Sequence to fold (388 residues):
Amino acid sequence: MDEFLVWNPEEFDDVKQISIPTANVWVPDILINEFVDVGKSPDIPYVYVGNDGLVRNYKPIQVVTACSLNIYNFPFDVQNCSLTFQSWLHTTKDINITLIRTPDEVKEDKNVFMNQGEWELLHVLSKYKQFSVDSNEYYAEMKFHVVIRRRPLFYTVNLLLPSIFLMVMDIVGFYLPPDSGERVSFKITLLLGYSVFLIIVSDTLPATAIGTPLIGVYFVVCMALLVISLTETVLIVRLVHKQDLQSHVPQWVKHLVLEKATVLLCIRNKKFCPLLSQGSDLPLYKENNMNTAVRCNHHSCEGSRDTGRNLSLGMTVRDTSPPVMDSILHEITSIRQFMEKKDESREIAKEWLKVGYVLDVLLFRVYMVTVLAYTITLGTLWSVWQNA
Fold:
């Protein structure tokens, strides 16, 4: 309202409105405090002036403004950006800022918002206040709070679901036999795939020095869980192949793992693992599978079946020369030692494999509890944010 641009329409052929070049009319220096770049707008050289002194300047302004973003809940975040209109030079004696429409009308007006993009307009809040630089002069300002919400469907499909699928496959990978090398290669493939996935989505996540979005923490923890899963697999595979050291399982390990842990974990048939009975990977040598047992001395060598010790082969070697007999005896002794050593190696393999299977079940359940606790924590944080 310009009190110097008032006239009586009856004195000027009932003219109530005219257009005047903007350069010929005083225009207030109303600016937006959040400006970070020069405003871009089409050049409209005229303003409308009414006979009551109302000057209408319909020049649209496209501006780049600074907005304090809260990215903790990305991509389910709601942002509140402010636009503050005020005059830098004139006080309320010269310029006073008010709304043409009521605050409720401004709050519910969404017609001018482009609703097909990434953001959804919730409402616009307006607030008027006066502030003073010194005790005698007051300045007026009008602040608009534009509340917008991000549409999370794109980020959910491209970020959250692939990560969840990889974590589910990591859990399924525990059902592979620990004594085979397939589990290690499977876990390494998952870890490599997740690393490539993080490289791809790194440009999608908002980068700030103030804080990290919750989804970024989620990705890091998922990567850590994959590393822990791979480490557990490597340890179990090394344990079930510990028979290479030719050392038996210590008694305290047998007591804790094969007796206490099996009862605690409710594992059936605690003395013999069910998977060991298959014998696919470890063809266990049993002494009763030997068809014959050979007994020799310096003068004779006779063989008998284990089930019939009284049946003699009837072979005497008295006429055989002593050098040949010593050679046969040496070969038989070597075979016997080899079979005993092989049988001992099989027993060691059985013991360590039992321990490996029990520890694998234990670590798998601990891993599942960790994943469950992590899921509950994320759900709790999400609920707290939703309620806030």
